[in-house]
Amino acid sequence: MQVPLLDLREQLRPLRDEIVERVTEVIDSTGYILGEKINLFEKEVASYCQTRHAIGVTSGTDALLATLMALGIGPGDRVLTTPYTFIATVGCILRLGAVPVFADIDSRSFNIDPDEIERIVEESGQAEKIKLILPVHLYGQCAAMDRILEVSRRHDIPVVEDAAQAIGAAFPMLTDGKVSWMKAGSIGNAGCFSFFPSKNLGGIGDGGMVTLQDDQLAEQIRRIRVHGGEPKYYHDIIGGNFRLDPIQAAALSVKLPHLPDWHEGRRKNASLYRQLFAQAGLVDSGSVQLPVEMYAQQAELEKTLPDHHIYNQFVVRVRNRDQLRDFLRDNQIGVEIYYPIPMHKQGCVKRLMVDLPEFPEAERASSETLALPIYPELTREMQHFVVDKISEFYKQ
Fold first, then answer.
1. Half-sphere exposure of residue 376, counting CA atoms within 13 Å on the CB side?
2. 27 to each of 19, 22, 32, how far by Cα in Å?
3. Residues 196, 77: one domain?
4. Sheet holding 53-57, edge to edge
């Protein structure tokens, strides 16, 4: 049996005619830059993410870059983030001449550890130097935003959410003794999303979005995405060409209403994996450690179950990770390693470090984790096959 890591053809099949119709409307309109399709999609995303503004941009990377530019991040500024992420998070910091400051991750969630954030800001005396906190909501689960915002407010440091993998994920924010579930991208000063095709909400090419509540910051980002021009040909600030393509907006508008059902499909697949791994004895033996749902207890108290984890990836810790990866690929099962080299050990970052720091949890995650297929159209038979093959590997 062949089990791909992701199969977009099954998702596309029932939506293809509508997507083609919407894309054709863009082509026939001859309006290929910004315009009605962008405005509509931005309103839809703002409503979905519970924010006042949503600003379409060229990619998740440019969402981060434009937001950091709008916040004035520049040469020598310190930006506190995680060493366990995709290069775009750190690359945007470096492109602006700023300096990444890393805090290790929580071993359970793989997200940045709020205790480490607090220690670095308050115990190391760097509060005045750090101009931004940039948490990443990894694999579809929000970082501990309540704790992060506590540090942010005490020291007046803005927070930008790298939510590239987490559109629709919810975080339980406690306010006046009551839990309020807030969507990723609505919690910090801004949220940055990617519509790369492999994301839960993926386009037919590159695309991204910035969500936020602040009117002034939103206006600044809108100017930055069109070379800083306001009005056209008048430039008080430097920007870039960061406009979302209306063809992407048209396709994404078709997909967005289906996102809650796709999230539900991913959660059901995650639940079946848990059942199958437990039945196979792989959890009790310690061969496989399953993803930890950090906010499941709060979610169970809700009458309407919130999307506390949207499973952009289903990432397990395993023994003999690289050998298992090769064995599964040999058996036509698609798997991936996110991420094999933490950021502080990447060549473009490492050579900038005076003293090479150590982040043991990020390094351990890089050597032990493996992503399994989790997309909504994955069949039960495919999941049984995946777990059977993993069990076969460890029996050998």
1. 18
2. 12, 9, 7
3. yes
4. 53-57, 208-212, 190-194, 160-162
- Residues sharing a CB contact under 8 Å with residue 54, sequence separation 6 or more, in sequence order: 42, 43, 45, 46, 209, 210, 211
pTM (2 decimals)?
A: 0.96
**pLDDT tens string 338-381:** 999 999 999 998 887 756 678 999 999 999 999 999 999 999 99
Helix, strand, coil % over all residues of the chain, rounded to 5: 40, 15, 40
| CA neighbor of 349 nearest in space, from 73, 83, 40 | 83
Please state, in angstroms and rounded to a whole number, the distance separating the CA atoms of residues 35 and 250.
11
Pairing of strands 208-212, 190-194: antiparallel
Residue 388 belongs to domain with CATH number:
3.90.1150.10
* Assigned token pair, 184: 């990723």
The first and second tokens of residue 35, run together, are 């315009």
Same domain, 314 and 363: yes
Say how far apart CA 168 and CA 263 lie, in whole Å. Answer: 9
Kindly report the number of other CB atoms within 10 A of residue 206's CB atom. Answer: 18
pLDDT 10s digits, 178-222: 888 999 999 999 999 999 999 999 999 999 999 999 999 999 999
Q: Is the pLDDT of residue 167 over 90?
A: yes
337's tokens:
């390693």
Let me know whether 49 and 192 are in one domain.
yes
CA distance 210 to 51: 10
Q: What is the pLDDT of residue 304?
A: 64
How high is the mean pLDDT of the chain?
95
User: Which residue intervals of the chain are DSSP H helices?
Assistant: 8-12, 16-29, 36-49, 60-70, 87-95, 114-118, 145-155, 215-224, 246-255, 259-279, 296-300, 321-330, 347-350, 360-368, 380-395
DSSP state of 291: P
Size of the chain in residues:
396
311/118 Cα distance (integer angstroms): 28
Count of structural domains within the chain: 2
